[in-house]
User: What shape does this take?
Amino acid sequence: MAHAHTVKRHKGLMDWLTTVDHKKIAILYLIAGGFFFGIGGIEALLIRVQLAKPMNDFVTAQQFNELITMHGTTMIFLGVMPVIFALMNAVIPLQIGARDVAFPFLNSLGFWTFLFGGLLLNLSWILGGAPDAGWTSYTPLSSTTYSLTHGVDFYTIGLQIAGLGTLIGGINFLATIITMRAPGMSFMRMPMFTWTTFVTSTMILFAFPAITVGLVLLTFDRILGANFFDVAQGGNPVLWQHIFWIFGHPEVYILILPAFGVISEVVSTFSRKRLFGYSSMVFATILIAFLGFMVWAHHMFTTGMGPVANALFSIATMLIAVPTGIKIFNWLFTMWGGQIRFTTANLFASGFIPTFVMGGVTGVMLASAPADYQYHDTYFVVAHFHYVIVGGLVLGLFAGLHYWWPKMFGRVLNEKLGKVEFWTFIIGFHMTFFVQHFLGLIGMQRRVFTYLPNQGFDTMNLVSTIGAFLMGVGVIIFLVNVVLSFRQPKGVAGDVWEDGRTLEWAIASPPPEYNFKQTPLVRGIDAFWKEKMAGNKEMTPAEPVGPIHMPSPTILPFMMSVGLFIAGLGFMFTNDDFGNSVLNFLFGKYIITGLGLAITFGCMLLRSLFDDHGWHIDPDELNDKEVKAS
Amino acid sequence: MSTPHPQQAAGALPHEPEKATLEGRNKVLGFWLFLGGESVLFGTLFATFLTLRNQVADGPSASELFSLPMTAAATFILLVSSLTSVFAIQAMHRGNRTSLARWLGVTVVLGLAFLILEIYEFAEYIIHDGYGMTTSAFSSAFYTLVGFHGAHVLFGILWISILIGQLFKKGLTVVTAPKIYVSAMYWHFIDVVWVFIFTVVYLLGKVVG
Assistant: This one.
C-alpha cells in the first residue's frame, strides 16, 4: 500500500513552485520578505536623504508622499510579516514534534498569495504612480477626489491579496498547534515561541477580516462609485479610521508577540536556564493580545471622540504596560545567575530589552490623551513606533535568524561578523531615532517633505540620516555574512548551540524532509533539555519506525495566486480609457477580472475533484536518507 | 498521519466519518477557525451598515424601500434549507448515501430559490427605482452587506452541488465526509448571518425606520 500512488517529484525551480514542505516554504518566505525588506529599506534611505538638510529638493513632494506610504506599507505587510512567517514555518512544526503543518496546501497558498499581493503593490511604481496617502490611507485623502492616480487602488487590492495569505497562514498555525503536537506536549509544556505564534495567529484570525472589509469598502468607493467615506452622499470618513485601527492596532501586537517568543527562546538557551516565570509569560502574552483589541482608538485621540472615550482608551492602553513589564522582568530574571554566552543571537536579544523598554515608555506617554494632543503627528510618534518595531521586532528577528539559521540551512553565520553587524545596526538605530523624539517635541511634523532652516531641526536631522545609513551598513554586513555562510559545507551538528532546549535541536540540521523519523515523546517543558539532563542523547520515540505519509507537491496554490493577481489588476483598471477599443472592452466589461477569478476558482475546483492521497517514505528508505541528509 | 488511504468497504464507515482521520479532524477544526474570521468580516460589515443606515442623502430610506413579505419568505426558505442540511448530516451519520444526496439536493434547491428572490429584489430596486450602489451611503452599505451574503450563498450552492457529484463518483468515504460536514457548517453560518441581516437591515429599517 505504501507505494500505491506514485508522485512525481520535481527538481529545480518547479520544486520551489510546487513545494508544500514547511521548511522550504520558510525559505521562500525569508527570500521574499528579505527582498521587500530591502526595497522598504532603500525607500527609508531615500526619505532620510531628502530630510538630511533643510529645503532639500532631492525628491519632489509627490515622490516623498509615495516613498513614505510605500516604506510603511512595504515594511509592515511585506517585509517583517513574511520574515515572522519564515521563522514560524521553519520552527513551529519542529518545536511541537510534528512532521508538517496541519494544512500543507494552504501553507503554500498563503505564501503565494502574499507574494503576488506584494508584487502587485510594488508594480505601482512602474504603472502610473505608487500610493501616496500614507500607510494608513485615511479618507478623504485616499479618495478619488484627492488621490488621482491608481496608487491607492494598488494599495487596496495588493494588500487585499497579501492579507488573504496572512489570514490563511494564521488559521494554519492555529490548527497545527492545536492538533499536531507530539504526545506529552500539553499546552503548558509548549515552548514560548510556539505559544506566541499561537496567540499571534489568533489575533491574525480576528484582526485581518476587519481590514479585508475596510479595503473592500475603499475599493468600492474608488472604483464602483460607492459612498462609504464620501461626506456629500452621507458617508463617514471617521468610519475608515475605526475600521483601519481595529485591525491596525492588533496588527502591531501581531508583529511584536513573535519577537517576544524569539527573545524568550534565545535568552533562556544562552543563559543555560529555564525561562523564568513560564506561566506568567503565557498569561502576559494572552493578556497583551486581549488588551490589544481594546485600544484601537488611541490612534484617534485628536479625531474628536470626546473625553469619555479618550479616557477609556487611555486607561486601557496604559494597562498594556503591565503584562509587557512582566515579560521584561522575566527575561531579566532568566539571565540573572545564568551562565550567559553573548553569541550574536543573544546580543540582539539583550539589545532588544532596553531598546524595547524605551519604545514602551514613549508608548505610555502617548497613551495619555491630553499629552497626545501635543505629540500627535509629530516625529515623537515616528520615534516611538520605530523603537517598538525596529528596536523591538527587527532586533528580535535578527536574534531569531542568527539563532535558527543553522537549523534552517545547516550552516552557521559567522559570529565575528555578526557582532560587527549588531553594533553597527544598534548604534545606527539609536542615532536615527533617538533624536527624533526631540525633533517631535520641538515641533517637527511627521510626513512633511522638507522644512525651513534655523528652527533647530537641522543638526538632528543630519544625525538621523547618518544613523540610517549606519543601519544600512549593518544590514549589508548581515547579507555578506549570509553569502559567506553558504560557502561552508552543509550539515552542522543538530544541537549546534550545545545548549538547545526544545525539540528542534534534537534532529539534524537541516532536518530531513519528514522532520522526525519517529514522533518524540515529550516529558516536560524544554523537552530536549530534560532528556539531556537525564543522560539521554536523543528523544524517546513515541512510535515504532513505520512508513511516513507525505503530501504531494502541487502547482495549484501558485496558479490560484496568479489568478487573483490578474483579477486584481483587471478590476483596478475598470474605468480607464486606454484609447483602444479592445482593451477598453476587456477591462471595462470585467473580462480580465473574470478570467483571473476563473483561474482561481477553477484551481479550487480541481483541488476538490482530485483528492491528494500523498505518498509514503518507507522505513528502509528512512535509514538510507539519514546518511544522505547530512 | 493516520489512515491516509481510506478504502473502506461499504458499511464499514465509522459512526462519525468526518472525524475518523486526522485530516478530517483538522479540516473541521480549521473550518471552525475560518468561520471565526468570517464572523469578524460580517461583524465589520454590520458595523458599517449600522453607522450609515440613516445616511440616505437624496435617495429613499429603508422604510420606503423594503417590502417585508418577500423578505420574510426568503428568510423562511433559507431557514428551512438549514434544517434540510441537518437532515443531510443525519443521513451521513447513518451511512445512507442516497438520502444524504437527496437532502443536499433539497438544500441546494432552497438556496437557489432564496438567491432568485434576492436577485429579483435587487433588480427591482436597480431597474424600477433607479436605486444603486452610488445613490447614497446607505445604499452602498446595503448592497455591500446583503451582496456579500448573497455571494456566500452562491458559493455555497456551487460547492454543495459539486459535493453531490463527488458523492456519486467517489462514494461516502472518510475523504468525502469531512467535505460534506464543513459545507453544512458553512451553510448554517450563512443562515445565521441572514437572521442578523433580516433583523438589522429589514426589520429595523421597516419597523423602527
About this structure: Confidence is low (pLDDT under 50) at residues 1-10 of chain B. The two ends of chain B are 56 Å apart (CA to CA). Residues 93 and 153 of chain B are 25 Å apart (CA to CA).
